[in-house]
Amino acid sequence: CMALDGAVLYFAEDKQVHRVALGGGEAIRVAELDGQVAALAVDGRYLYAFTVTQEHAFVAGDVLRLPKQGGPPSSLAAAAPRPAPLSDVVLGSDRIIWSSERPARILTVPLAGGVIETLIENGSYPVRVGDLLYWQDGAGVWEMPVRGGESRLVMERRTGAMGPIQVAGPDLVWVDGSARRLVRARLLAAR
Fold it and tell me: Is the pLDDT of residue 73 over 70?
């Protein structure tokens, strides 16, 4: 897993987190953690890591906050469900957001640490664009403010295998895994 912060790429190898300049150079170890790193996210001050352990059958672990230049991690939440494969970890202004695989739901924990809460039942593949959070479920793709609030359907479900989504201007894009093709669809709000 990887997280990009301007001209620096953070990446994980098993239990270690490293950083390297995009322009090249030596990779520098930032931390060695107790569990295997399953996902990374980064903001202006910190690096966030999701770890999983054999004790939890690699499906749950800890959400940790680390100084970007290295140093001891702080635990934000323990026994957190592992992020779903290919799912984005989204940082809001005051919380971290991710989707679990089984059951499919979007979870959140405060950046200061605390209790894990279910933000959206049956949701997956969250992505942040500006102040909006997008995700998908069986009905289609939804949006809501990252800080929380009312959600609304912005694209009805289509046929085919819908994987992780991204927003590109007024369109949603994803790869239809069964047909191996890029799909682009106009958001309902942009029609």
Answer: yes
